[in-house]
Specification:
mainly beta, 1 helix, globular
Length: about 210
């Protein structure tokens, strides 16, 4: 189970899925993004509607990667002048920074049960809905995805190395929080106390492995 804690220091990658679907409106109103894998054109990503018309062109001078597969209302991209991953709408407006799920690896969060984790400049975690609207402002040091209308959150957290030591080792971290609880989809804290993550998972009948 991933208990989110933000990490801005992630390695850059210079590739994107050759094609993927991005739904910027209803499920019937999706746009398909195609990448120029030859790296010979200014616009590395061309976005096409269902009629085959080009509606957006993403300049490789601005974007270096993109993520997603059948995403509604927004695309998740990497910008050359900004750290982290960003959600943009069809007019290329920045909506929010997307939480990175794996420490030290490029792994932007995905929509789960209609919600996606976001972060602010201080690394606090909040949530946006599937339309790209911020519905829970960043305020938590750790947060899981939503399950049955609940997300486990943590306060007073720190990352603890559990594997492996050494300068060249592939390091893995656990997030330990002094205070653990859960929220509903409105961001209301329903319970918070001196629980471990495992205790809160058991209390909420959280599914194994999540």
């Amino acid at each position: 189970m991933d208990v989110g804690r933000n990490n801005h220091e992630v390695p850059t990658i210079n590739n994107c899925l050759d094609t993927f679907d991005i739904a910027f409106g209803t499920e019937k109103d999706f746009l398909t993004v195609h990448q120029d894998t030859t790296d010979t054109h200014k616009f590395g990503y061309v976005i096409i509607n269902q009629s085959g018309d080009t509606v957006m062109r993403l300049d490789t001078a601005k974007y270096y990667t993109c993520f997603g597969d059948t995403i509604q209302y927004f695309a998740i991209v990497g910008l050359k002048n900004k750290k982290g991953w960003w959600a943009i709408d069809r007019n290329e407006n920045l909506l929010f920074e997307v939480y990175n799920t794996s420490y030290g690896e490029p792994s932007p969060d995905e929509l789960t049960n209609g919600m996606i984790r976001i972060v602010d400049k201080k690394g606090k975690i909040g949530f946006a809905n599937f339309k790209g609207k911020i519905v829970i402002k960043p305020q938590f040091e750790a947060a899981t995805t939503f399950y049955k209308g609940k997300a486990i959150v943590g306060r007073q957290c720190k990352q603890v190395l559990w594997c492996c030591k050494g300068d060249n080792a592939d390091k893995h971290y656990l997030t330990k929080c002094t205070q653990t609880g859960y929220i509903d989809k409105k961001g209301q804290v329903k319970e918070m106390g001196d629980y471990t993550l495992e205790q809160m998972q058991k209390k909420l009948n959280w599914p194994p492995g999540d």
